Amino acid sequence: MAEIVLMRNFSRPDSHTLSAYRAAGGYAAWDKAREMEPTAITEEVKKANLRGLGGAGFPTGTKWSFIPKTHTGPVYLVVNADEGEPGTFKDRYLLERDPHALIEGMLIAARAIRCTLGFVYVRGEYVQPWRRFGTAVKEAYDAGLLGQGFDVVIHRGAGAYICGEETGLLSSLEGKKGWPKIKPPFPAIKGAFGQPTIVNNVETLCCVPPIITRGAEWFAGLGTKTQGGTRMYSVSGRVKQPAVYEAPVSITLRQLIEAAGGVSGTGRLKAVVPGGGSAAILTADEIDVAMDVDGLKTAGSMIGSAGVVVMDESVSIPEALMVLARFYAHESCGQCTPCRESTGWIYKMVHRIVEGRGRKEDLDTILDVAKRGAGTTICAFYDGAVGPYISYIEKFRGEFEALVPK
Amino acid sequence: MSESDGAPSTSNRTPADSHRLASGVEHPAASHGHASLSDPATTVFSEGQLAEVRRLQSLYPDPQGALLPVLHMAQETFGWISLDAEEYVAGLFGLSPAHVHEVVTFYTLYFRARPGRHVVSICHNLSCHLAGAPGIIEHAKRRLGIDAGETTPDGRVTLLAVECLCACEAAPMAQVDDRYELNLTPEKVDRLLEGLR
Questions:
Q1: Chain B touched by A164 (CB under 8 Å)
Q2: Are residues B125 and B158 in the same domain?
Q3: pLDDT in tens, A197-220
Q4: Model's pTM, two decimal places?
């Protein structure tokens, strides 16, 4: 595979320490960026074609430029380290193995958006990554990197997938249950504590120092026309070497599965989840697709968090959908009726189908309920559930029907 | 603790509410009566902890931002979040106990009944499922003699089946207290459980 950018330090001894990070050239990007005009930093990130790596794939530099120019009060930077998308584990590696890359990315981003206070929202279950990152922040304070015009507060979550949704995260940061908020206003206009706020994913911000050091053209050149860089693909399920793999975003799904040692189990591929649990499933015939934002959109799915879950021929698709449907039923925050009700009922229906108690009309009912509810809720959670509901049933309908008593 | 905000006193609340773990599953110890007892004298932070509460509150533009961290502190100190603890924390923030209850009940990591001395959370989401999580969970249930969501009668282990913990490369996996335990096999589960005292 080509150039390693994000995982470049992972194999260094004590890569999580400031001294190791510095020895590998760390904080040189910050030294450069602190001499740059804030708008020049944003322009560089725009030119690099960096797109958000948490799920939505929004152009990062463009997001930064949404902070109102006329705003005179505080602006906040919030890092989304609430990793929770089924099949995704990349941010855990960054927090544990290269926490200073995130701190450096935050420093640069904060300068670009003229922000003096940043929050890092770490999922509550990530106790070790939280401690590791906390130690790095303390090192950065002691070294005078932080506390000189930019402060970082680490905020530990308490177990709720919905807090990975940026406005749900902000509610949680404000000391409330993690209910998403209606957009607009977008967080860049009115976010944390009512102030303009940029919410960026961990991996996204870790891309920023290399962009500043090596230039936007270099970064853009690593990827496709519409998305620059490499990214970290979490590959799990039925592959021989499940792990996190860094590759240019132009890599195809087929190449990625090969890089992970190929299909395990029966060795014959049945289906792949290309972008975390909420991405529509792809069949074995659909894997010659570029793993960037636009490539998967064209294929009718989404790259999301780039969590790739591989299923060999022995995997039961109805059972896989049941597991995901249970997840959505458990994690729906309960705010919007279509999501709260549908996720529960659809889980019940898929569950009874898997148990051989399904009714003939169940599949059409699920599809009908899923399609009617899509796009009617405050946040994208339900749309993320609808992707699997519809694609698993439409692409593998025979497998579901075989379980329904005649 | 103040009653001035009109919140009901602890004694008016339904005791059944405090018998439930965060997972919503009935806590077996609760039916024996001892898990729901909370001694009000213990639901108080030390002076040092109160200073830490004030420090946490000062980190946020609005002190309420510190609610989740302070609830984590409360759970570490008291072992779980009782209704008394909710009311106490509410008082530290000038919030209604109802608001704190709403927050506590929203998140899975706050326990609303005393959990076992160790909490074993086995992931049952997609990648772990494909790697045999159902068998691992069944094995743990048999070994412990309890269902998922329950605590062993000796108060040693609470067993939970949980959603994706994001260590899918090492499925099946579990969180045992603060640690991630990876690539589980029935034998590894046995060793882990035996190590929990």
A1: no
A2: yes
A3: 999 999 999 999 999 999 999 999
A4: 0.93
Q: How far apart are CA B116 and CA A125, in angstroms?
A: 17
If asked whether residues B96 and B28 sit together in one domain, one would say yes
Query: What pLDDT, in 10s, does the model give residues A144-168?
Result: 999 999 999 999 999 999 999 999 9
What mean pLDDT, rounded, does chain A reach? 97
> Each residue of B16-28: pLDDT tens digit?
333 344 444 434 3
Cβ–Cβ < 8 Å for A271, A286: no
The verdict on residue B112 lying in a domain is no
Q: Do A86 and B163 touch (CB under 8 A)?
A: yes
* Domain end among B106, B127, B145: B106
Assigned fold of A317-401 = de novo design (two linked rop proteins) (1.20.1440)
Highest CATH level, class, for A18-222: alpha beta
CATH code of the region A230-312:
3.10.20.600
Contact yes or no for A128 and B180 at CB 8 A: yes
Considering all CA atoms of chain B, what is the largest pairwise distance in Å, rounded to the nearest integer? 56
Return the residue in B73, B121, B130 with the most chain A beta carbons within 10 A, the one to mutate for interface testing.
B130
B22, B69, B179 ranked by CB distance to A156: nearest: B69
Question: Minimal CA–CA distance to B108: which of A172, A74, A313, A158?
Answer: A158
Give the span between the Cα atoms of B86 and B96, in whole angstroms. Answer: 9
